[in-house]
Each structure stands twice: as C-alpha cells, then as structure tokens.
Amino acid sequence: LYTELFVLVFPGYRGTHVASHMVGLLMRYALDLPSAGGLGLRRVQWSANVHNHGSIGLARKMGFRVEGVRRWARVLDVGKGEGGNGVERRKGDPRGECPGRDTVGLAICWDEWEEGGRERVEGILGGHCKPVVPRSK
pTM for this structure? Predict the structure, then answer.
C-alpha cells in the first residue's frame, strides 16, 4: 500500500512554510495508522527532475531518502530543454525534438516514519497543525 505525492507551489509561496506544512500534513495522513486518523500506508514516494533542487531538498528535509535515478523517465515538451538530461537523442526517435528527463526517486516507509520520521515532521509543523483523531462510535 503506497502513494506518491505531487506538490505544486506557486512562486509567491516558495521559500515559506506552505510546502513543508502541506507535505507534512499529507505524510501524516498517509502514514499514520487508521486508529490515529491516517490511512496506514506503508510507503510514500516522491519523484522530481534531477535539476529541481528545491523539490529534492524539500523531500529530504521531510525525511524522504533518495533511492535512485530513473534515466530517460519522461519525455519533455519541445522548448523544455533546460529541464532535460542533456543527452543527445538517438537517430530516428519519433519524438527526437523533445528532450528526455531523468527523475530522482525518493521515499519514506512506515518503519522510518515510526522511528523518528513523525517526530521530524511534527517539529517542522511546529504545533500549528494538530492531528485529528477520529472519535469512536
């Protein structure tokens, strides 16, 4: 049981608490057990362009570990060369005008969450976002 986070932060909110709080709340919901108001998933994944240092930095700050790089993981649109992997495309490629993208894969699993990950995230949230525990019926 796993999920993957997709985070989009508008430029005016970059460098603020918005992204870390959003990710922290999603992590809590995904990894906490149902008895604590969560889904009880075993793993949360994160993918980012190898050139997106802000995204990779945020993931690492939140306790995600780098697991590896998937080469040629995506095809970017024409004109998105700055996000490409810089590798020459092969002759005859049907999308030869489109650059390729390498993607960093990061993840945090339930055992890392329970062995300090939750405390790390709660420290980042700073008590601003209290967990809601479901009432028993």
Answer: 0.85
